[in-house]
């Protein structure tokens, strides 16, 4: 019989994985998916215990697949936070949906997140789930805001739509029933050596998180299309013992957006810089010096060359 030499691209264990790990070590991938704004990123941060993904009240905040790794002596759970599932309008959206698909392909367990307020108008998430075989946990989020009987009603509705799923009502914000999710995931995890070194927290580099923190502040400080037309790239990241010095480029699509972003006398952008620096100092545990430059890149969301430059590989 011919040997199959095509190694899988993902799920490749570390070299010499048996070194030092118990035989019953568990490891696997957990994909967090759902519609925009239901609380996927809030949940991932809760599960990992770190503020890895940015969170805002606006839909489509997350644009990448962001892995958050939780390590224990005999387990490694690799969560993937993903963009909310939408009908793509731009090349950017298509790339975001490819991130969702790649996380589903790798998944050992799927956390399908919905919330009390999701108007079930499209079954696009359910359709995507039909193509996977991994066990699905359906999480009804934001139950801290529930009125009487609302949780029971929503649970019943979802049970009808997804009769094979285990349903858990949660509050990602308040940490309600998070332990129950963890226990279920661990039960479902296959025996496997770790995929990543045990001290790693994410697959993303430090400058990615720095850029995301700036993007979060832009989502929080501006209205309408400005946050959606903005992309951030950290082009310099120099760290010494005491301080990290960063240069970030902020791209918008139009001249008018550049004006709005900078604001009168530069006040608006200054505010973003101060807020971002504060959060970066907490994230990196070090003093941060941040310089920002605003540039115009017309219609960057529509062009694959631009998107590739920004890390949305097509
Ligand atoms: N009350 C309440 N609010 C929550 C909860 N979980 C998340 N939120 C809020 O819901 C909003 C969206 O949260 P995110 O975690 O950014 O949602 P997301 O699903 O990652 O959104 P996208 O990245 O845009 O797809 C934020 O304002 C959160 O603070 C919860 O359990 N209770
Ligand atoms: Mg998100």
Blueprint (SSEs and pairs):
Layout: E1 26-34, H1 40-48, E2 66-72, E3 75-81, H2 91-106, E4 109-115, H3 124-130, E5 136-141, H4 150-161, E6 166-169, H5 178-188, H6 206-221, E7 231-239, E8 243-252, H7 255-262, H8 267-284, E9 287-296, H9 304-309
Helix pairs in contact: 6-8
Bound molecules: guanosine-5'-triphosphate and magnesium ion (MG).
Give an overview of the whole structure.
The protein is α/β, with parallel strands linked by helices and 314 residues long. Helix content is 33%, strand content 22%. It has a 6-stranded mixed beta sheet, sandwiched between helices. A 3-stranded mixed beta sheet has the order 7-8-9. Strand 7 and strand 8 form a beta hairpin. Helix 6 packs across helix 8. It is globular. The chain binds guanosine-5'-triphosphate and magnesium ion.
The end-to-end distance, rounded to whole angstroms, is: 36 Å
Query: Would you list the SSEs in sequence order as H and E?
Result: EHEEHEHEHEHHEEHHEH
Helix content: 25-40%
- Rough outline: globular
- Portion in beta strands: 15-25%
Tell me how many strands there are.
9
Side by side, the strands of the main sheet go 2-3-1-4-5-6
Low-confidence stretches: 1-9
Q: Kindly state the mean pLDDT as a whole number?
A: 93
**Structural class designation:** alpha/beta
Q: How many H/I helices?
A: 9
Q: Based on the structure, what is the oligomeric state of the protein chains?
A: single chain
Structure ligands: guanosine-5'-triphosphate, magnesium ion
Could you describe the largest sheet, including whether it forms a barrel? Answer: 6 strands, mixed
- Our Rg estimate from Cα atoms comes to 21 Å
């Amino acid at each position: 019989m011919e040997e199959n030499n095509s190694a899988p691209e993902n799920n490749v264990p570390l070299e010499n994985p048996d070194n030092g790990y118990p035989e019953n070590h568990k490891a696997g991938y957990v994909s967090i998916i759902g519609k925009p704004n239901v609380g996927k990123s809030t949940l991932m941060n809760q599960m990992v215990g770190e503020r890895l993904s940015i969170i805002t009240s606006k839909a489509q905040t997350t644009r990448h697949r962001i892995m958050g790794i939780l390590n224990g002596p005999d387990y490694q759970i690799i969560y993937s936070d993903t963009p909310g599932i939408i009908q793509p309008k731009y090349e950017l959206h298509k790339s975001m949906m490819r991130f969702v698909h790649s996380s589903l392909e790798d998944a050992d367990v799927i956390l399908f997140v919905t919330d009390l307020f999701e108007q079930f108008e499209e079954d696009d998430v359910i359709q995507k789930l039909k193509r996977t075989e991994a066990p699905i946990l359906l999480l009804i989020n934001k139950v801290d805001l529930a009125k009487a009987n609302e949780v029971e009603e929503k649970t019943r509705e979802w049970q009808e739509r997804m009769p094979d799923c285990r349903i858990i009502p949660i509050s990602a914000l308040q940490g309600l029933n998070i332990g129950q999710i963890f226990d279920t995931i661990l039960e479902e995890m296959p025996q496997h050596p770790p995929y990543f070194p045990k001290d790693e927290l994410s697959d993303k580099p430090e400058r990615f998180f720095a850029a995301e923190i700036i993007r979060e502040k832009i989502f929080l400080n501006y209205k309408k299309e400005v946050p959606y037309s903005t992309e951030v790239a950290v082009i310099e990241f120099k760290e010494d013992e005491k301080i990290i010095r960063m240069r970030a480029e902020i791209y918008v699509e139009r001249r008018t957006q550049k004006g709005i972003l900078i604001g009168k006398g530069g006040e608006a952008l200054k505010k973003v810089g101060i807020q971002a620096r504060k959060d970066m100092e907490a994230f990196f545990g070090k003093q941060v010096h941040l310089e920002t430059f605003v540039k115009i890149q017309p219609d960057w969301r529509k062009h694959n060359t631009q998107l590739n430059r920004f890390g949305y590989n097509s």
